[in-house]
Amino acid sequence: MKKRQKMKWLYPIALASMVLLSACGGGAKPAAExxxxxxxxxxxxxxxxxxxxxxxxxxLTGPNSPLGVPEKQSIEMLVKEINGAGGVDGRPVEVVIExxxxxxxxxxxxxxxxxxxxxxxxxxxxxGSGPSLxxxxxxxxxxxxxxSMAAADQITNPVRPGIFKTPHTDVHGTKRIYKYLKEKGITxxxxxxxxxxYGSGWTQQxxxxxxxxxxxxxxxxxxxxxxxxxxxxxxxxxxTDAQALIVAGTNxxxxxIVKEAKQLNLGxxxxxxxxxxxxxxxxxxxxxxxxxxxxxxxxxxxxxxDANDPQAAVVKKFVDxxxxxxxxxxDGFAGYGYDxxxxxxxxxxxxxxxxxxxxEVLEKVKxxxxxxxxxxxxxxxxxxxxxxxxxxxxxxGKFQLIK
Length: 403
Fold this sequence. Notes:
- Strand 4 (123-125), helix 3 (129-142) and strand 5 form a beta-alpha-beta unit.
- Mean pLDDT is 89; it is low at 1-45.
- This protein has a seven-stranded mixed β-sheet with strand order 8-7-9-10-11-14-15, sandwiched between helices.
- The chain is 35% helix and 18% strand.
- With 403 residues, the chain is of the alpha/beta class.
- Helix 1 (65-84) crosses helix 10 (332-351), helix 4 packs across helix 5 (197-209) and helix 7 runs parallel beside helix 8.
């Protein structure tokens, strides 16, 4: 990946349902954010050529907002860096950001608006698997390149022209967890997954790959995304001979499950999917989270990455930049957005800004990102493997790498 000049970090831009990020010549500023306040000023070093206008749909409100907000922030940060370094062949990058409110229908409405009204040439998003699947269907029909920030394997499997994604899939997470269980001699598991597309994808993969790793599933339970309690499902699981519980969902569900499992003295290890791999989980779960295991990307523990790891320098640059911009630690979701825009921009550089060729070019991209080492191909539009995932344990209210 090409090195870019270091940006001059600016103050964080306030959360809004739509923000236009721009660095056009003459010091032009983006459209005003919600509440009538203008966005923070931006550099205008990308020249006065016609901008490359991209769209993004993130879950800025609703249950998936802990995913969408950091994704939006990483995009804002990176746009300033790209434009400060000259843009793409002298053309500034603009990103119009929409909020899907963590809703599938709203996500499709948002991408339709971006394509028909804003005339974007490519789209990033969404944060969740359900919204992303609807967006991908529309993007494919309109031949608009899309890079999703959601995990479900079916977003890119089967492969569709122009549709890509940056997170590890539920297949990667399943295999990495099963490798860990095999090392520990655990052969019987229970699973309690969200009934939405993300959790359902995990259920499918956990069942599919269990025989390959000598795993028997002794309990299969599910819950609704907005359910306030899962104690009845946990009580059923406690009555089985499961040696571990795997939970797949996004916050707050997994945190609720962990707290109720401790109250019920479930007594077996709990392993969560990467859908809750962020600081919000630690905040929600509190002391009950001690000892919980989780599969995740390396960005979750940036200070614990081996210095010789190819991702180490990339992760450090991103973390340092994000902390300077937002005075906060980035999580894997911020990384999904960062990798997505970087991949899109690298592709546009190779096509001279011609989005019609972006899908074909991305199939040949090899890129070391903060999420992993991406090696796209005509047969693989995710480009990652389970080997770039890690297992962590919550210790003293922090994530600790399991070596």
